[in-house]
Specification:
The complex is a heterodimer of chains A (about 190) and B (about 250). Chain A is mostly helical. Chain A has eight helices and three strands. A three-stranded antiparallel β-sheet of chain A has the order 1-3-2. In chain A, helix 2 packs across helix 3 (about 30-45), helix 5 (about 90-100) packs antiparallel against helix 6 and helix 6 (about 105-130) packs antiparallel against helix 7 (about 135-165). The longest helix of chain A is centred in the last third of the chain and has 33 residues, at about 135-165. Chain A is elongated, with a radius of gyration of 24 Å. Chain A starts with a helix and ends with a helix. By secondary structure, chain B is of the alpha/beta class. Chain B has a six-stranded mixed β-sheet, sandwiched between helices. In chain B, strands 2-1-4-5 form a four-stranded antiparallel β-sheet, covered by helices on one side. Chain B has helices at about 60-65, 90-100, 115-125, 130-145, 160-170, 190-205, 215-220, 245, and strands spanning about 15-25, 35-45, 50, 75-80, 80-85, 100-105, 175-180, 210, 225-230, 230-235. Classes of the chains: A mainly alpha (about 190), B alpha/beta (about 250). The interface between A and B is medium-sized, with 32 and 32 residues.
Chain lengths: ~190, ~250
């Protein structure tokens, strides 16, 4: 992201922080220390260079290098690692609710569903207000809404699955089917 | 502005729509199907309520009963403080025409009428004099930002403009209650959101709305979301929706 901002022209550290926050809808605050640390790393790796005043601090202006432009183009097209499912606390809770005797899994699911919708309402208010004139913020808000929407859909599906399972007689306890593929995938912490 | 609730205990405290212990059963025992079971719901002026639930949960039945298109098996329905039960058929029909606006899935604009004529249609059907109805139609189009499209026919309008005309038609005149069943139909998510934004803006101008949807992203536009399951309300959102808490600076990483 910092490289992307530098690709527009030479910039100062503080300016980069401001532009980063504005460019991401101010949803991810960034402290100045992080900015300078990252700039230092970019400089070390030859992806960015600074005005040769030799002096650290806000006066230093950074520009992107040719290598930096290449790295930026490559980064944009490199898919993020989504291969292993994250260890999701909500999934855990529903799994537990399904097993613990005396737990009404539907009620547990419903409570989470209400909470998620309340969150979605808050994001939507943001979309209705500030995000109307802020494209970056609108994109970030959309991403969050789609993510929360997916979680709610999963809860809906889990609800149906649990209801169906409760209606069916339990299957005979046969030998558990090993799932080597899943094990290979592993679970990211 | 004439108040349809006049004569009753009108005032701001009165809900535009109130369901009290509403149940609806279709058919006879032993094969009776219970669509709604003891639903309480109160919607104030200016409030937009979304009703969510799986198919068969009773969402659409709730809407047809709220719109007095069907009668509950038991329980009470009040519109602007007036109980629908026991109201003479003619009066109820008039209430339905004057107070309640409907937004349909596919917008249902009449192709042979201009945008202004479409928007004015509910009033003309209700016997309002044509010039007065047209003026109200134009005002509704203006409120939705499509006054300059008044003379166009539906096939000369973009999809977004058609949505606006359809919502203008639903709020034309002094309509107080807006009922919408999956109002964004087959629209893509950005345009579907736009429909919800327009409905929410209509509410901010004082209308009450009940929107049935299975889509959480659309429901999130509402001020309050209620959940139905097997004809019962299983919960509703309570937090006053404000984005502030999302943007309070957090230390990350």
């Amino acid at each position: 992201m910092l490289l992307a901002l530098l690709s527009e022209g030479p910039k100062y550290g503080l300016q980069l922080r401001e532009e980063f926050e504005a460019g991401t809808g101010e949803v991810w605050p960034l402290n100045v220390g992080q900015v300078y640390k990252t700039l230092g790393r970019l400089e070390r790796d030859g992806l960015a260079e600074s005005d040769g005043t030799g002096q650290d601090g806000p006066q230093k202006r950074f520009r992107i290098t040719a290598d930096g432009r290449e790295a930026l183009a490559a980064w944009l097209r490199t898919p993020p690692d989504l291969t292993s499912p994250p260890r999701d606390e909500l999934v855990m809770k529903v799994l537990v609710a399904a097993r613990v005797p005396g737990t009404d899994a539907h009620e547990v699911i419903q409570a989470h569903r209400v909470y998620l919708l309340e969150l979605m309402q808050q994001w939507t208010r943001l979309k209705e207000g500030e995000a109307r004139d802020d494209l970056s913020l609108a994109l970030v808000v959309d991403a969050e809404l789609f993510r929360l929407d997916a979680v709610i859909r999963w809860l809906d599906a889990a609800d149906v699955r649990l209801e169906r399972a409760a209606a069916e007689p339990p299957r005979p306890a046969s030998a558990p089917v090993p799932s080597p593929r899943l094990r290979r995938l592993g679970v990211r912490r | 502005m004439s108040r349809p609730g006049q004569g009753g205990d009108s005032g701001n405290a009165v809900s535009v729509l109130e369901l009290r212990g509403v149940s609806k059963t279709y058919g006879q025992e032993p094969t009776a199907v219970r669509a709604l079971a003891g639903v309480d719901l109160s919607v104030r002026a200016g409030e937009m309520v979304a009703v969510m639930g799986p198919s068969g949960s009773g969402k659409s039945t709730l809407l047809t009963i709220a719109g007095s298109l069907e009668e509950p098996t038991s329980g009470e329905v009040l519109v602007c403080g007036m109980a629908l039960a026991g109201m003479p058929r003619g009066r109820r029909a008039r209430l339905r025409r004057r107070v309640i606006g409907y937004v349909f899935q596919d917008f249902n604009l009449l192709p042979g009428l201009t945008a202004a004529e479409n928007a004015a249609l509910p009033l003309e059907l209700d016997g309002v004099a044509v010039p007065k109805a047209r003026a109200a139609g134009l005002a509704a189009l203006a409120a939705l930002g499509v006054a300059d499209r008044a003379g166009r026919f539906p096939d000369q309008l973009s999809g977004g403009e058609r949505q606006r005309v359809a919502i203008a038609r639903a709020v034309v005149g002094d309509r107080r209650l807006l009922l919408a069943d999956e109002p964004s139909g087959a629209l893509d998510s950005v345009n579907a959101g736009e429909v919800m934004r327009l409905l929410h803006e209509a509410c901010q101008r004082g209308v009450a709305a009940v929107v049935v949807t299975h889509d959480a992203q659309l429901a999130a536009w509402a001020d309050r979301v209620v959940f139905l399951r097997d004809g019962r309300m299983t919960g509703q959102t309570t937090r006053p929706p404000g984005p502030e808490s999302l943007l309070t600076p957090r230390e990350t990483r």
